[in-house]
């Protein structure tokens, strides 16, 4: 599996959510609504999730091992930094 495209949309509103991301795998499968969140320990990647009737959240799609999670996080955060730098340059 290869990540063939990462599209980052910055969130303009103030708050913990910094961006919404779509990741394309092997030019044939897309995962939308991945979020970049600023937490107490820095930025982290939150997979798309749904709120259950109990109020807790459950991931809809997610990596099933640490190696794949790292692949996703590295690609997403790298593209986020590029988009963030480009947006600052345009101001």
CATH topology: Arylsulfatase, C-terminal domain
Biggest pleated-sheet summary: 4 strands, antiparallel
Which percent band covers the strand fraction? 35-45%
What spatial order of strands do you see in the largest sheet? 1-2-3-4
Structural class: alpha+beta
Succession of helices and strands: EEEEEEH
Please tally the β strands and state the result.
6
Helix share bin: 25-40%
Number of domains: 1
Could you state the oligomeric state of the chains shown?
single chain
Radius of gyration in whole Å, from Cα?
14 Å
CATH architecture assignment: 2-Layer Sandwich
Mean pLDDT: 94
Number of helices: 1
First-residue to last-residue Cα separation? 37 Å
Protein name: Putative septation protein SpoVG
Family: Belongs to the SpoVG family.
Pfam families: SpoVG
Keywords: Cell cycle, Cell division, Septation
What distinguishing features does this structure have?
alpha+beta, SpoVG, 6 strands, globular, Arylsulfatase, C-terminal domain, cell cycle, two-stranded antiparallel sheet, SpoVG_sf
